[in-house]
Amino acid sequence: MASGDQGPARPKVAFLGPTSSYSHQATKSVFPDDTWELSPTVTIKDIFDVVQSGEVKAGVVPFENSTHGIVTFTLDALADRKGLYSNLIVTGEIYLDVHHFLLGRPKQAEATEESDEPVEGAAGSGKSTEEPPKATTEEQPGSAEVLPEAVETKSEPTTTSESEPEPEPEEAPAQAPVPVPGQPLHSLAHITRIYSHPQAFGQTSLFVSTHLPGVETVETSSTSRAAQLAAADPTGCSAAIAGELNASANPGLVVLAPNIQDRDDNTTRFLVVFREDGDVDVLPHDLYVPYAARKGDLTLEELTGLQRSMFKSLMRFTVPHDKPGALADVLDCFRAAELNLTSINSLPSLERPFRYMFFVEFEGDRPGRRTDGSGDKVMAAYEGIAKAAKDWKKLGTWMKQRD
Q1: Helix 326-336 and helix 374-388: axis angle, to 10°?
Q2: 95, β-bridge pairs
Q3: How far apart are the first and last CA of the chain?
Q4: Tell me: the pLDDT tens digits for 291-327?
Q5: Hey, what CATH topology would domain 99-112+181-263 get?
Q6: Closest Cα partner for 222 from 206, 205, 238, 242?
Q7: 375 and 365 Cβ atoms separated by less than 8 Å
Q8: Which of 105, 125, 126, 106 is nearest to 117 (CA)?
Q9: Which residue, among 97, 65, 62, has the nearest Cα to 265 in the 3D structure?
Q10: Is residue 401 within 8 Å of 94, Cβ to Cβ?
Q11: 177-191: per-residue pLDDT in tens?
């Protein structure tokens, strides 16, 4: 080999960028960058486009979050109403535990003034202000003006026995306050705008409403893009909700508040999309090793004896809306085949207003690939669905990676 040769080109995998995004982290966990070229895109639709065109071998897209639910942009691409992605299938899943951080520039005064006063105030300001909060247009009409009416009462003389003093009224037990995730490490009084992805806003609503009420929120294509925009603000009054890695990736940003997600078990599941006519042997082996085997609970030799619950499949369908029980008829096909449904989602079909396309995820393998009978049950379900649904399509089968 000549000295100038670089060897064979690495296959490409697309993810929702920029780098340091949660999608980037999820992709790196399965597609190592020493054997794969990780290619960032701007939108989820871009990922489907480059996989369909063959520009990249595979794509990693966020599918659902344990706190905020389904990622509509991905579901919309899987709906494929215009038939742009007829060759694409889902061939794997990746889980990522997501911890959100509020990133921004510290208040300028913090760099020049030293204070022994603790951080106070709902927005984490260095000094507590006596000025009451101003009403905003988001408040309920009159909510800042309505006061409880004063009720006049007359004091009546009472006769009490010296030997039996009047008992004091029992106090109602105090309700425990809802714990607010994260605690600001810096003053947040100067923050007037927050950038982030819609999913991240949904996963951190408790922190934002408590510490930054009324602050402008701006949706971005990804959390990494949000960090870039916050870093580019010359006033230093913008912040971003993003992963911690984005602080070091964007000079000037620091962690203003760590772990601000509403739940500590906040997790996002990603799907791997692939061309149906592609060579699956190029895909990382980890996609085909069950979670139980990674934990050491299952040896690779036992893979041949796996039950159908180790696999997931996804399909979409529409039903004749004018037929009573049409949706129930389709779902009954899974019950009759003894297949466990793991999720059901829907989107407008856009055929007519208020007509829907349904997405069903279930435990089961591809028909004909297994010898334990699970494929036969899936085939039986498909045969029933073909009769009950208006139209339907299989969207892929993959090895389940988490219980």
Answers
A1: 170
A2: 269
A3: 47
A4: 545 555 555 555 545 555 688 999 999 999 899 999 9
A5: D-Maltodextrin-Binding Protein; domain 2 (3.40.190)
A6: 242
A7: yes
A8: 126
A9: 97
A10: yes
A11: 556 677 899 999 999
